[in-house]
Amino acid sequence: MLLKIEKIEVCYGIIPAVRNLSLEVEEGQIVALVGANGAGKSTTLKALAGVLNPRVGKIFYNDKDITQLSAYRRVPIGIALVPEGRQLFSTLSVKENLRLGAYHSNDKEFKERLKEIYSIFPIIEERKNQIAGTLSGGEQQMLAFGRAIISKPKLLLLDEPSLGLAPLIIKEVYKVIDKIRLTGITIVLVEQNIKMAMRIANYMYVLEAGELTIQGEPLKLMKDENIKKAYLG
Amino acid sequence: MIKLNYSNKPNTFTGIWIPFGIGLGFLFIVLGIFNRVLDNYTIHIITVIGIYIMAATSLNLTNGYTGLFSLGHTGFMLIGAYTSVLLTYKVSLRAAYNLPSLPALLGGANYQWPFLPALLMGGVIAAIMAMIVGYPVLRLRGHYLTVASLGFMIIVTTMAKGMKSFTRGASGIQVIPHYTNLWNVYIWVAITIFVLWRILQSAPGRAMLAIRESEVSAQSQGINLMKYKLYAFVSGAFFAGIAGGLYAHFTRSIRPYEFSFSMTFFIVIIPIIGGSRNLFGPALGATLLVAMRYLLKPAEEALGVYGLVELIYAALLVSVMIWRPGGILGRESRAK
Amino acid sequence: MQGASYIYQQIFNGIVLGSIYALLALGMALIYGILGLINFAHGALITIGAFCFYFLLFKLHLPFVLVIILTISLGGFVGFLLEAIGYRKLRGGPGPSLLITSLGIYIFIENAIKLLISPQPYAFFNPPFLNRVINSFITFRVIDIFIIIATIVIMICFALFVKRNKIGMAMRGIAESVETAGLVGINVNQVIAWSFVVASAIAALTGFMWGAKYGQISYDMGFMPGVIAFVAVVIGGIGSIPGAVLGGFLIGLIQIFTVGFLPLGWSVYRDAIVFTLLIIVLLIKPTGILGRKESI
């Protein structure tokens, strides 16, 4: 079991955004967290990334307790986050963004990893000296992916990768996610777009108002009447 | 001292004037006792404390209550000081000390103003300057405001040094008539604190507090930012001018550099250490720091450890900032 | 007050003084860009650097180059301490707190030096080779050339550092968003510490330059240059390090021109003119000459 979350509670100030949440992720899987806005999906992801700390509960990564580990120390152990809205360094160039994604590598390692990234995302190589803020939405998403996987993570956390993107681009983005999965990286995906999530995930967790309501394989869930009504419209 | 709780006292006669009357009476009794019992040196110190209470309390209206971090306050004190001095300077001494005589409009060559009107004039001129300077400067946010106000102080002190025909430049003015004493200082202290109290209880005061908490929110509530910032700034400057005048007529000698960084730092940290959210915080701070100075300065001389007093002030300030940002009379937690 | 050579002389002097201000502004802008902090204590590093150099060279008679290296190292170390002890706890707090604290730290250091070393100024004698006067079209000493060359070298190194080195890049990243920087694995505390080390090391060096140029050091020598450094940052443009450098040179030139070209009685207005310029800039273009985005 690569990742195990045990009964965590995460709060914003005194308001709990996530309560009593437990989930597991096996290596090589794509696991999706879905639910409406404010359900607590992003919060969970941020707890995994170390941006937020759970008040209660534990997070185990490779059987190690990382609950209180600082965010910046999770990257070298193999956890990378692509945050909601991508959060690129918009005043830095594409290449510089990638360099910071590979912060813990030395210059030589970086050069090699850079080549790999360029081969997965040729568009990025084209724009390598361009300022990140001037890229299009889809290109920025690719760069955000590149920046996350350049550190060779074992666990990739994706927060709403389709947010703000045109449908055609979203398809491209999900193709890339699949490509990434094929390299052996485990993915935890947060999505409001349930249809896309269902198509790609091995397992799904549905959150509502900060708590886990339903979980299961997408095909099984698709047959559930309640889900159909509530989420698939 | 009487702790005044803002939210409870109503705006009525009993709510306002009776506490004030009681406070004032209490003050006079205490001062009367001091006057009888204590020696001149101690009374001297208490008077100085009073002057700094005024300076720091008036500063606190701008810095503490409205949240505008100004470093220019001593500029207004300087303006008040020089105005008052130039108006009241003894006619017979003017020529000898190269000071100009008053123009006809202000009384003519054979006139010297009495203390109170001159003092008030000092405050008024300082307030006018605050109005002029405030309009452009108060538009700036945060750090810019601070540095601009510092610039104002430097400009004022430099001009005092430069305009030798008026101010005798860097040598300053000596042999100032000794008008200040224990009583008039503390009457002004009482007035200052009272006026501040009334301002804070009123609508403009609430606006100032709102501005401190969040300018954006205040604006969205319809508060005219500039109007109330100016209100605080100008009021503070008026009392600073008076404090400056009292200072000049107490120490009997003023020089531009006395109103520079040293005094600026001193009056800025007084409310911080004493408590910037409390009406009497600056008073406590002033008492503590001035007393400390008079206690320790002789030690400095004796032991040759120059700089000790400022060192202690700085250490106190940094400690307060790190561990008790509300000041002595403030709240314990770091959260505002 | 006549002749081209006089004008060139003033320009040269302005560039020398401006170099010192530019270096200080560089360090100030770096810290301000990353932390949003006006580091008043920066000025204290000047004094520390000057006295350190003084003692190492004149009392211990160590070789010049070694003294420079030690002075810079001490400056960096003090900067590190400042950040770790003074500022780290207050990060993220209300703006005025950091500013007052930095002012308090400056006053503490200034008076510590006054107390522990001397309230009287010390005469700063240059190593003879720095004092050689060269009389050609304009008159200058070797120290002036040293200052200009050192400034250019430091600027170039800094620009390369911030462009190529990953820690330098991380500084730019943090200046944009601390949260994102932590997300991608940057040890933010470490990078911030480095920025203080770099800025303070440079400031310590300017202490030596100032002492060498003016022949005198005192416990309060760092205050005005420190304040002027921040004025340079604001005038040149918040968020822009080239702007800060430009601001430094501008102020140097203005101060020299005030003394050199205006009637004698105006010299005393040297500092006031700088602040008047500041207020004008703040009113017309608050983001400064080369400024772009705000950090707060």
Describe the structure.
The complex is a heterotrimer of chains A (233), B (336) and C (296). Chain A is an alpha/beta fold and 233 residues long. Chain A has a domain at 1-78 and 153-165 and 186-233: Rossmann fold (3-Layer(aba) Sandwich), CATH 3.40.50.300. Chain A has 9 helices and 10 strands. The longest helix of chain A is centred in the last third of the chain and has 16 residues, at 167-182. In chain A, 45% of the residues are buried. By secondary structure, chain B is mainly alpha-helical. Chain B has one domain. Chain B has helices at 13-37, 40-65, 73-88, 91-94, 115-137, 142-162, 164-167, 182-201, 203-213, 215-220, 225-251, 261-274, 281-303, 308-323. Chain B is globular, with a radius of gyration of 20 Å. Chain B starts with 12 loop residues before the first helix and ends in a 13-residue tail after the last helix. Chain C has 296 residues and is mainly alpha-helical. Chain C has a single domain, classed as ABC transporter involved in vitamin B12 uptake, BtuC, CATH 1.10.3470. Helices cover 73% and strands 3% of the residues of chain C. Chain C has helices at residues 4-35, 42-59, 64-87, 95-116, 128-131, 142-164, 166-176, 178-183, 188-214, 223-236, 241-261, 270-284; strands spanning 122-123, 133-135, 139-141, 216-217. Classes of the chains: A alpha/beta (233), B mainly alpha (336), C mainly alpha (296). The B-C interface holds B 63, 67, 69, 136-137, 139-140, 142-144, 146-148, 150-152, 154-155, 158-159, 161-162, 170, 261, 265, 268-269, 272, 305-308, 310-311, 313-315, 317-318, 321-322, 325, 334, 336 and C 38, 86, 89-90, 93-97, 99-101, 103-108, 110-115, 119, 219, 223, 227, 230-231, 234, 265-266, 268-269, 271-272, 275-276, 278-279, 282-283, 286, 296.
Topology record:
The complex is a heterotrimer of chains A (233), B (336) and C (296).
Chain A: E1 3-12, E2 15-25, E3 30-35, H1 41-49, E4 56-61, E5 64-65, E6 79-82, H2 94-101, H3 107-120, H4 122-126, H5 137-149, E7 155-159, H6 167-182, E8 186-191, H7 194-200, E9 203-208, E10 211-216, H8 218-223, H9 225-232
Parallel strand pairs in A: 3-8, 3-9, 6-7, 7-8
Antiparallel strand pairs in A: 1-2, 1-4, 4-5, 9-10
Helix pairs in contact in A: 2-5, 5-6
Chain B: H1 13-37, H2 40-65, H3 73-88, H4 91-94, H5 115-137, H6 142-162, H7 164-167, H8 182-201, H9 203-213, H10 215-220, H11 225-251, H12 261-274, H13 281-303, H14 308-323
Helix pairs in contact in B: 1-8, 2-8, 2-11, 2-12, 2-13, 3-5, 3-6, 3-11, 5-11, 8-9, 9-11, 12-13, 12-14
Chain C: H1 4-35, H2 42-59, H3 64-87, H4 95-116, E1 122-123, H5 128-131, E2 133-135, E3 139-141, H6 142-164, H7 166-176, H8 178-183, H9 188-214, E4 216-217, H10 223-236, H11 241-261, H12 270-284
Antiparallel strand pairs in C: 1-4, 2-3
Helix pairs in contact in C: 1-6, 1-7, 1-9, 1-10, 1-11, 2-3, 2-4, 2-9, 2-10, 3-9, 6-7, 6-9, 7-9, 10-11, 10-12, 11-12
